[in-house]
């Protein structure tokens, strides 16, 4: 189900396209397409005005990518949800 039709946001660093879809239950996914965006994060994002003094004291997370995301399902509902994703995405 389309929750929000695709739209484009832009700033001086380029453009990004978004859309929001609903999958199972009340779960929604915001889809993001980078249209050659060169900014730090997304249009409108500004770096913090100050540095958190505790940040350098924290250990490195070593997180370089996200492998997968989990959406828990009731008993016997995993296969229909997986099939929905295979069919629709």
Automatic annotation (TrEMBL):
Keywords recorded for this protein, A-Z: Dioxygenase, Oxidoreductase, Pyruvate
Keyword Magnesium in annotation: no
Entry GO MF terms: 4-hydroxyphenylpyruvate dioxygenase activity
One GO term of the biological process aspect: L-tyrosine catabolic process
Keyword Oxidoreductase: yes
Source taxon at top rank: Eukaryota
GO cellular component: endoplasmic reticulum membrane; Golgi membrane
InterPro entries per the UniProt record, alphabetical: 4OHPhenylPyrv_dOase, Glyas_Bleomycin-R_OHBP_Dase
Protein's recorded name: 4-hydroxyphenylpyruvate dioxygenase
Source organism phylogeny: Eukaryota, Metazoa, Chordata, Craniata, Vertebrata
Gene: HPD
């Amino acid at each position: 189900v389309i929750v929000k039709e695709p739209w484009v946001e832009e700033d001086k660093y380029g453009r990004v396209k978004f859309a929001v879809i609903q999958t199972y239950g009340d779960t929604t996914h915001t889809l993001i397409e980078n249209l050659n965006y060169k900014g730090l994060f997304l249009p409108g994002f500004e770096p913090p005005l100050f540095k958190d003094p505790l940040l350098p004291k924290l250990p490195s997370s070593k997180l370089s990518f996200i492998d997968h995301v989990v959406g828990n399902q009731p008993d016997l509902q995993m296969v229909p949800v997986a099939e929905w994703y295979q069919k629709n995405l």
